[in-house]
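Example for tutorial group B:
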């Protein structure tokens, strides 16, 4: 029986090559899209879940309370917290301090030197994170303050084939550290990015402020004991910081480390999503596009039903039961689906490098994984059953006494169902079109928005090694070059400021008022170099020594402090710094557009500078880089010359949105193309059903234009119905997505008009081909059987 199904299916596929090609193409493209998204979703879901104790691994979070019932959620914690948790909370098996992972330090081994990315972590790091060691002991790898753990990549880079254990590396040209372990390279699906791990005590020596309960600047991770209740631990640690220092009003809570990547956004102390929204979005898109492909197959199979009707009638006359016919047609659909899945796999393999480039992934198809083939065959069978179910049930239900007379008519329910499929297809297509337009506009808005400073022609250098102490001569040297306009320094990149404090007082502040202020310590010429606008007062001046006790604030700080008149000259205090406000700058964005502009306080502290910002002349970037390189090597010869463009750093803040925008474009085009194949199938079906009517109309004098218009208008009605259904759904979905941005584009009416018009135009072009073909056909052929 099975072999018979296969023979019949192959015979029909070969006999109807055009139908087979279109059906296979539609299903293959839909499956390829589905596979791409499934690979991406799987990679996202597995992020940070590769550790042996993932079910017991948590990160410690803070809910900081401020005036107006505002809650600010961060993962920064005091440096003293890990040790205290280990001692005072018995349910915690291990707690460890870990830095942020953005530290690039100089590594030197003999004549090989470069800056490498690493972490600083506590001695029990490997008891919390089960990272595989290639050599060395996890128990002792970080117990010594002169130890260092390196990755496999770094071991090969600096030691070649030698065993690095016990060898010495020069660290920032100030410390000699001994390699105690070599670990596997950090997984792409891990949030812990590092090429080395150094003892956290090294970091603490240069950041003594970590040893205060009121200062946050490091991450804390914990592993709970087996069978420990996370709810009980949550209760115990909630007020933990309040017991250490009376004026602290911060709550602690635990978040599963495996959830932190996908659920990283918090509002008022509650998790409100994050990347999980993109996982859900693209999962829905995958299902939708696969449905579009299946509907396309249904419409094509229905369009061919008139040619298969007599076959069904004859088989029934000779005794074929209905279940046999259902099995036959389902078998054909599954055969086409299996061919399609193989073609889709080829498409995926061919385009996988492009997909990885767009998404920033390193996805590899595991052909040797048996489970992969099980899923692949399962997807093919599911698609075959879904797409072949309606044609199989419909064709097998035909009555031989009717179809053998040569007349095949469809009741209104069947026609409505098929038209409903087209409406559904184009509803999804219009959703994709609207989504693509909105995402494009928001991304373009991000790129072009006036940030309050000029991000173009701005180069950022890290003040490493001797460059910090030689900064002034370095600055004067490069300013002699005509390609460089201005130079300044600050404690951090101005578009990613992570420093803030509530320890600020000003005239009129209420005793219970708590506001979080972002703080930035800068050098001279910061305002000039950044292109920030002074609204009131003046910039810091190198001629005034007293400016080190002054402040420059932004407009948002003026509003928060309610200094509506004469803000300049008002004396405020931040920490132990007391002095007047000497200038007010117009608001400029100090973080991504996801967040509203925060109140900012800037203090003159050139000696604290960690990065240099260099403003270059437009069109002279390469000349400026050459001058910077020469001066850098002159004043900091031990370090490699590395630099960043600030406009590129800004774009990196929105890499997720840009990725979504690119994928949305591809999926929209794909969905529309598959929908057009389905519409083409229905047009074939309608034209075939109305062949006699078209012949009569032509005999009575109807022109080709009349007939094309008659056939096309019905389809345009279907697209209009799809638009009416899709518009409110699209508005709801895109409005929700735009809520992730504090600054966003408006959902203008013309977006929906363009989407609807585009869908109608595409439908008209698709239908016109078949309509013209039917209109120019010889009426003699269509009427000769009457």
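The residue assignment follows.
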């Amino acid at each position: 029986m099975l072999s018979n199904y296969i023979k019949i299916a192959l015979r029909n596929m070969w006999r109807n090559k055009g139908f087979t090609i279109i059906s296979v193409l539609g299903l293959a493209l839909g499956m390829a899209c589905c596979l791409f998204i499934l690979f991406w979703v799987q990679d996202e879901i597995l992020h940070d879940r590769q550790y042996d104790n993932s079910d017991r691994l948590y990160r410690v979070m803070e809910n900081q309370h401020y005036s107006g019932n505002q809650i600010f959620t961060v993962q920064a914690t005091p440096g003293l917290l890990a040790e205290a948790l280990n001692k005072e909370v018995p349910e915690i098996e291990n707690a460890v301090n870990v830095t942020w992972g953005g530290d690039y330090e100089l590594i030197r081994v003999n004549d090989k030197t470069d800056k490498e990315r690493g972490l600083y972590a506590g001695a029990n790091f490997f008891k919390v994170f089960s990272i595989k060691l290639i050599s060395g002991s996890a128990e002792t790898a970080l117990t010594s303050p002169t130890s260092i753990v390196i990755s496999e990549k770094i071991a090969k880079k600096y030691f070649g084939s030698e065993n690095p254990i016990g060898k010495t590396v020069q660290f920032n040209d100030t410390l000699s550290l001994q390699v105690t372990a070599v670990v596997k390279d950090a997984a792409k699906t891990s949030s812990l990015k590092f090429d080395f791990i150094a003892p956290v005590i090294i970091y603490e020596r240069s950041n003594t402020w970590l040893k205060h309960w009121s200062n946050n600047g490091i991450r804390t991770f914990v592993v709970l004991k087996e069978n420990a209740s996370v709810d009980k631990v949550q209760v115990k640690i909630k007020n933990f910081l309040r017991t250490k220092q009376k004026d602290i009003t911060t709550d602690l809570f635990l978040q599963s480390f495996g959830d932190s990547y996908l659920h990283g956004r918090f509002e008022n102390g509650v998790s409100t999503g994050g990347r999980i929204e993109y996982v859900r979005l693209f999962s829905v898109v995958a299902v939708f596009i696969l449905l579009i492909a299946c509907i396309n197959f249904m419409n094509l199979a229905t369009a061919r039903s008139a040619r298969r009707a007599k076959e069904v009638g004859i088989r029934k006359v000779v005794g074929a039961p209905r279940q046999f016919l259902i099995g036959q047609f389902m078998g054909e659909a599954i055969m086409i689906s299996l061919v399609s899945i193989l073609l889709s796999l080829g498409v995926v393999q061919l385009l996988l490098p492009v997909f990885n480039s767009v998404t920033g992934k390193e996805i590899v198809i595991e052909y040797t994984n048996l489970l992969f083939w099980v899923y692949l065959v399962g997807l093919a069978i599911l698609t075959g059953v879904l797409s072949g179910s309606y044609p199989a049930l419909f064709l097998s239900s035909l009555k031989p006494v009717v179809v053998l007379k040569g007349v095949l008519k469809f009741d209104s329910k069947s026609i409505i169902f098929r038209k409903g499929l087209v409406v559904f297809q184009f509803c999804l297509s219009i959703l994709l079109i609207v989504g693509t337009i909105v995402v494009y506009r928001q991304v373009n808005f991000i790129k072009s928005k006036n940030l309050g400073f000029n991000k173009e022609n701005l180069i950022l250098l890290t003040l490493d090694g001797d460059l910090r102490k030689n900064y002034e001569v370095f600055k004067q040297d490069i300013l002699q070059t005509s390609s460089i306009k201005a130079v300044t320094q600050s404690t951090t990149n101005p578009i990613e400021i992570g420093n803030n404090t509530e320890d600020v007082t000003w005239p009129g502040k209420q005793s219970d008022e708590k506001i979080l202020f972002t703080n930035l310590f800068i050098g001279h010429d910061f305002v000039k170099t950044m292109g920030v606008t002074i609204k009131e007062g003046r910039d810091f001046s190198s001629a005034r020594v007293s400016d080190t006790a002054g402040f420059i604030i932004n407009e948002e700080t003026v509003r928060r402090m309610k200094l509506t008149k004469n803000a300049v000259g008002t004396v405020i205090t931040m920490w132990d710094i007391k002095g007047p406000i000497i200038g007010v700058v117009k608001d400029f964005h100090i973080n991504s557009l996801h967040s509203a502009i925060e109140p900012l306080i800037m203090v003159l502290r050139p000696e604290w500078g960690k990065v240099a910002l260099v403003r270059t002349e437009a069109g002279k970037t390469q000349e400026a880089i050459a001058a910077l390189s020469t001066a850098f090597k002159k004043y900091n010869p031990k370090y490699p010359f590395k630099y960043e463009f600030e406009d590129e750093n800004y774009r990196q803040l929105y890499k997720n949105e840009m990725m979504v925008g690119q994928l949305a474009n591809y999926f929209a085009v794909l969905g529309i193309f598959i929908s057009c194949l389905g519409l083409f199938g229905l047009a074939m079906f309608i034209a075939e059903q109305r062949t006699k009517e078209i012949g009569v109309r032509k005999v009575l004098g109807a022109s080709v234009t009349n007939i094309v218009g008659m056939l096309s208008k019905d389809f345009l009605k279907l697209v209009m119905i799809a638009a009416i259904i899709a518009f409110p759904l699209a508005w709801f979905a895109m409005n929700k997505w735009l809520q992730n941005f504090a600054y966003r584009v408006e959902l203008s009416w013309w977006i929906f008009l363009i989407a609807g018009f585009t869908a109608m135009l595409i439908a008209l072009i698709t239908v016109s081909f078949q309509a013209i073909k039917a209109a120019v056909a010889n009426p003699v052929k269509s009427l000769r059987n009457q």
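The mean pLDDT is 86. Compare this with the pattern of hydrophobic and polar residues in the output above.
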